[in-house]
Design goal:
single chain, alpha+beta, 6-stranded antiparallel β-sheet
């Protein structure tokens, strides 16, 4: 099928390609995936490349076969990671299970929204890839209120035209509508200058680096190997110096480095991280406000029940300085004793008495937890019975509209 007329109509809406598109060997891509791809998608990607369609409020980001300059995006790894964790994430919201390629008739990821939702083709809906309808998966919905799956029942380019002209239903967006998107297009910055992609050699495990990181390495590099960070994390609009001034102290450098790579989000539906640099933006609570609120609550609890809360409250020497919370109501913080580089993690558990500080910094504690070591980390086990750690660990990024 000739898609040139439809690509011309798309160009009329958003303008010409904003930059050169990386070359794509579609035969190699389809051979690795084990399926042909829709012609409208191949035509659009060949012309436009890795682009963001829309504006600051809402946009669609194409994730074509390519490799980013910094190596943080590699097409095969993104497909494997997205499919693995998209099978996990909806479990809190629905019992409905969706298959993913390489399962026969499974969903195939190809794009994301600005708020971090994923777009897939339903490859089981038709033997003709040009007829594959698009499905959206969102976790920006309330548990028990909305389904995380939206089946649009139209092919990719038709959906894109509708997004630009009128918008489409989306239970996680304001007003229940995604769009209409601004008729704007740009090269998506994380994939600017991306190189062409080649399939991994036969017999090569795409996620071998993740498996190795379960037992090898330390620090932020190993965390990033286990759970790839967002390509464009949401940090907020402020600066670290503003945050430090507001809190009255600098923070541990390992935490600052991790927060800059991951931004706001949730670790495996348990540990919430606020936008580190958000300063009282409407509808969201940044790190500074989170610390202030939890610290005030801790002081009140300790005043009423000092026997249950042995650690003093910061800024007393060796005081508890909370910075994150869990789905169970626990508070994660530091024993702020000495310079920030030496602060150890401390936990204020909701359902038990407070114990002594843990032996390591936050990044070390997080890594131990991800590796399935609850005894060493002081956190509950991330894995369930009979589950592999890689099947349950993920980071769900939050965008600027998330109400932390």
């Amino acid at each position: 099928m000739d898609h040139s007329a439809r690509i011309s109509a798309f160009t009329d809406l958003v303008g010409p390609p904003p930059g050169p598109a990386p070359a794509v060997d579609w035969t190699a891509v389809e051979g690795w995936l084990g399926t042909p791809l829709p012609g409208d998608y191949k035509a659009l990607v060949s012309a436009y490349g890795a682009v963001e369609i829309g504006g600051p409020g809402a946009a669609i980001r194409l994730h074509p076969p390519c490799v980013s300059i910094d190596g943080h995006f590699e097409y095969a790894a993104w497909i494997v990671e997205t499919h693995r964790h998209s099978a996990i994430r909806p479990g809190m919201f629905t019992a409905r299970r969706r298959p993913f390629l390489p399962e026969e008739g499974g969903l195939l990821a190809f794009a994301t929204t600005r708020s971090g939702d994923h777009l897939f083709w339903d490859t089981g809906a038709s033997d003709d890839p040009d007829a594959w309808p698009v499905t959206l998966m969102t976790t920006h919905v309330a548990v028990g209120v909305s389904e995380p799956w939206v089946d649009y029942e139209v092919p990719f380019l038709e959906l894109l035209f509708t997004l630009l002209r009128a918008g489409v239903p989306h239970p996680g967006e304001p007003g229940g509508l995604l769009g209409p998107l601004p008729s704007q297009i740009r090269v998506w910055p994380p994939l600017a200058g991306a190189a062409p992609w080649s399939p991994p050699p036969a017999g090569t495990a795409v996620d071998a680096r993740q498996h190795a990181a379960l037992t090898e390495g330390s620090g932020l590099g190993s965390v990033m190997a286990l759970v790839p960070p967002p390509l464009e994390p949401y940090l907020g609009e402020g600066t670290w110096e503003q945050v430090f001034e507001r809190l009255g102290t600098r923070l541990p450098p390992d935490f600052v480095a991790l927060a800059e790579r991951y931004g706001a989000g949730n670790w495996s539906w348990w540990l919430d991280m606020s936008a580190p640099l958000s300063l009282d933006r409407p509808r969201e609570q940044g790190l500074a406000a989170t610390v202030e609120g939890m610290l005030d609550g801790y002081r009140q609890l300790r005043a009423a029940h000092p026997q249950c809360y042995p650690m003093p409250a910061w800024p007393e020497p060796g005081g508890f300085l909370p910075f994150a919370s869990t789905i169970d109501g626990d508070q994660i913080g530091w024993c702020a004793d000495g310079p920030p580089e030496t602060w150890r993690v401390a936990v204020n558990p909701r359902h038990s008495d407070q114990g002594p500080p843990l032996p390591g910094d936050f990044t070390t504690t997080l890594l131990t937890w991800l590796r399935g070591g609850p005894a060493e980390s002081g956190f509950p086990g991330v894995t369930g019975q009979g589950l592999h750690p890689l099947d349950v660990m993920f980071f769900e990024p939050f965008g600027p509209r998330a109400p932390w």
